[in-house]
UniProtKB/TrEMBL annotation:
A GO molecular-function annotation: nucleobase transmembrane transporter activity
Keyword Oxidoreductase in annotation: no
InterPro entries the record matches: NCS1, Pur-cyt_permease, Uracil/uridine/allantoin_perm
Keywords: Membrane, Transmembrane, Transmembrane helix
Transmembrane segments: 32-52, 58-79, 107-126, 146-171, 183-200, 229-248, 269-296, 308-328, 349-367, 373-399, 420-440, 460-479
Species, as recorded: Janthinobacterium violaceinigrum
Protein name as annotated: Nitrate reductase
GO cellular component terms given for this protein: plasma membrane
C-alpha cells in the first residue's frame, strides 16, 4: 500500500508513490495510440521535412528517420521495464543510480528540456490560432514587433491563448491525457490524408516527389557531403525522443503488463514515425513544385490552402498539438519538479511550473532557423540526456539485475542514499560523458565566439547522444563493478 512509503515527505508524495493494481489501466493499444498521437506532431513533421531542406532525397530522409526511431526504441523499452515492474516514475528510478538527492540532477535536466519543448509546441499552437484568425478576418493580423521579443502583439496573445487552453489537462491529470491521446489519434491520421490529397491535386501526383534526387549526387549543390549531413541528422532524430526515452517509466508505470508496454511501443513508434517522415517529404517536395521553395512548416503550408480546407487543417492541427504537448512535454517535468520537493510540489504544481518556464524561454527564438533547431537545440540536449540513459540502463540491468528495493528509494537513510544522498560514480560518469561534447556545442551554438574548435571535437559532437551513452555506460559500469547491492523487495501492486 502506498502509505508504506510515506515516511519521508521530502522523497514521497501520492503522485510519486508506486502505482497500485487499480491504477494500471493502460493496455498495448493505449501505448500504441499514445505514440501515434505523439509522433503525428508538428515538430516531428518539421524535423523530417528539414532533411529535404538540408539536401537529402526523399528516400534518404525517410530511412534516416526510421533508423533513428528504431535505435531510440531500444532504450525506451529497456528503461520502460522498470516503470512497469515497480510502478515508479523516472524521477524515483533515477534514485537507484544517482542517489536519493543526486536524482534531482537528472530530473531537473529532463524537466528543463521538456519545458523548452512545451514552449515550442505551445508556440506552434499559438501560430495556428494566429493563422486561423487571419483566415477568418481575411488578412494577416500583423503589427509591430515588440522590442526584445521579436514577435508582434497578436502573435504573443495567440501564444498565451494556446498556453491557457492546455491548463484544463494540467488540472485533470494523467487519465484525461490518456483519453485525449486515444480519441485524437484518428484525427492525426485524417490530417495526413488531407495534406496528401491537397499536394496530389496541386502538384500533379505524389509518386514522383519521392524520386527527387538528393543534392549530394555528383554535380549536385552538396556533392560528396552526405555523411556530414547524415550523422548529425541521425543524432538529432535520436535526440528528438531522447527526453521520452528517459521518462518513459512515467507512462509504463500504468501498464497492466510488460507485454503491453513492449508491444504498444514497438508498434507505435518506428513505423508511424517513418510514415510521417514520408508524408513530410512528399508534402515538402510538393511545396517546391508549387512555390519554388521547400516549406517545412506545416502551419505556413496550411495557411496557403483555400476555402474550408485551411480551417479544417488548422483546427485538427490545434487539437493535435494540445494532445502531443501534454503527453510528451508536461507529464515528465510535472513528476520531475515534484521530485525536487515532494512536500511542497505536487504533480499539478509541477505542471504549473512547466507551463510558466515555457513562456520565459521564448521558444520562437529557438525555431528561427533549421541550423538552430537541429544542431543547437536537438543535438545539444541529446549530449546531456544520452549519458543519463547510459547510467540508468547499466545500473538497472548490469549492476542490479533489474532488482530494486522500492521502499529504500523513498528513504534518505537507505541503501540508495550513498554518501549524503549522492552516488559519486553516477555524477563522475555523467561529467566525463558530457565533457567531450562541450567544445562542439559551443561552436554550434556560438560560432562567432568559438570559431576555432578542433575538427575532432566537431565530429564528436555530431554523435553527441551515442558518445554520451557509451562513455557514461562504460565509466559507470567500471566504477560500480563489484559493489554489492542491498536486499531487494519488489513494490506491491495492490
Amino acid at each position: 500500500m502506498n502509505h508504506d512509503y510515506s515516511g519521508n515527505t521530502q522523497l514521497w508524495n501520492e503522485d510519486l508513490a508506486p502505482t497500485t493494481a487499480a491504477q494500471r489501466t493502460w493496455r498495448w493499444y493505449h501505448f500504441a495510440a499514445l505514440w501515434v498521437g505523439m509522433v503525428m506532431c508538428i515538430p516531428a513533421y518539421t524535423l523530417s521535412a528539414s532533411l529535404i531542406d538540408s539536401g537529402m532525397s526523399g528516400y534518404q530522409a525517410v530511412l534516416t528517420v526510421f533508423l533513428a526511431n528504431a535505435i531510440v526504441l531500444l532504450p525506451m523499452l529497456l528503461i520502460g521495464h522498470a516503470g512497469t515492474k515497480y510502478g515508479i516514475p523516472y524521477a524515483v528510478l533515477a534514485r537507484a543510480s544517482f542517489g536519493t538527492m543526486g536524482a534531482r540532477l537528472p530530473a531537473l535536466m529532463r524537466a528543463i528540456v521538456a519545458c523548452g519543448w512545451y514552449g515550442i509546441q505551445t508556440w506552434f499552437g499559438g501560430q495556428m490560432i494566429y493563422t486561423l484568425m487571419g483566415v477568418l478576418m481575411g488578412h494577416e493580423l500583423g503589427g509591430e514587433k515588440i522590442a526584445g521579443l521579436g514577435i508582434n502583439g497578436s502573435q504573443l496573445l495567440c501564444f498565451l491563448a494556446f498556453w491557457a487552453i492546455q491548463f484544463y489537462y494540467i488540472l485533470h491529470g494523467m487519465e484525461s491525457i490518456r483519453k485525449l491521446e486515444t480519441y485524437t489519434a484518428p484525427l492525426k491520421i485524417l490530417i495526413c490524408f488531407v495534406l496528401l490529397y491537397w499536394v496530389h491535386s496541386k502538384a500533379g501526383g505524389v509518386a514522383s516527389l519521392l524520386d527527387q534526387p538528393s543534392q549530394f549526387i555528383p554535380g549536385g549543390k552538396k556533392a560528396g557531403q552526405f555523411w556530414s549531413v547524415f550523422w548529425p541528422s541521425l543524432t538529432a532524430m535520436v535526440g528528438f525522443w531522447a527526453t521520452l526515452a528517459l521518462n518513459i517509466p512515467d507512462f509504463t508505470r500504468f501498464a497492466r503488463t510488460q507485454r503491453d508496454q513492449v508491444i504498444g511501443q514497438s508498434i507505435g513508434l518506428p513505423v508511424p514515425m517513418g510514415l510521417l517522415a514520408m508524408l513530410a517529404v512528399i508534402v515538402t517536395a510538393g511545396s517546391v513544385v508549387m512555390y519554388g521553395k521547400a516549406i517545412w512548416d506545416p502551419v505556413d503550408l496550411a495557411s496557403r490552402m483555400t476555402g474550408a480546407a485551411v480551417l479544417i487543417a488548422l483546427i485538427i492541427l490545434l487539437i493535435d498539438t494540445v494532445s502531443v504537448n501534454l503527453a510528451a512535454n508536461l507529464v515528465g517535468p510535472a513528476y520531475d519538479f515534484s521530485s525536487l520537493a515532494p512536500k511542497q510540489i505536487s504533480y499539478k504544481m509541477g505542471g504549473y511550473i512547466t507551463a510558466f518556464i515555457a513562456i520565459v524561454m521564448m521558444p520562437w527564438k529557438v525555431l528561427e532557423s533549421t541550423q538552430g533547431y537541429i544542431f543547437t537545440w536537438l543535438i545539444g540536449y541529446s549530449a546531456l540526456l544520452g549519458p543519463i540513459a547510459g547510467i540508468l540502463i547499466v545500473d538497472y540491468y548490469f549492476v542490479r539485475k533489474t532488482q530494486l528495493d522500492v521502499r529504500q528509494l523513498y528513504r534518505d537513510d537507505g541503501v540508495y542514499s550513498y554518501g549524503s544522498g549522492w552516488n559519486m560514480a553516477a555524477l563522475i560518469a555523467f561529467v566525463i560523458a558530457v565533457l567531450p561534447n562541450i567544445p562542439g556545442f559551443l561552436n554550434a551554438a556560438f560560432p562567432a565566439a568559438f570559431p576555432d574548435v578542433a575538427a575532432g571535437f566537431k565530429t564528436i559532437y555530431t554523435y553527441a547522444w551515442f558518445v554520451g551513452v557509451a562513455i557514461a555506460a562504460v565509466v559507470y559500469g567500471i566504477m560500480m563493478k563489484g559493489k554489492v547491492t542491498a536486499r531487494v523487495q519488489q513494490a506491491p501492486q495492490s
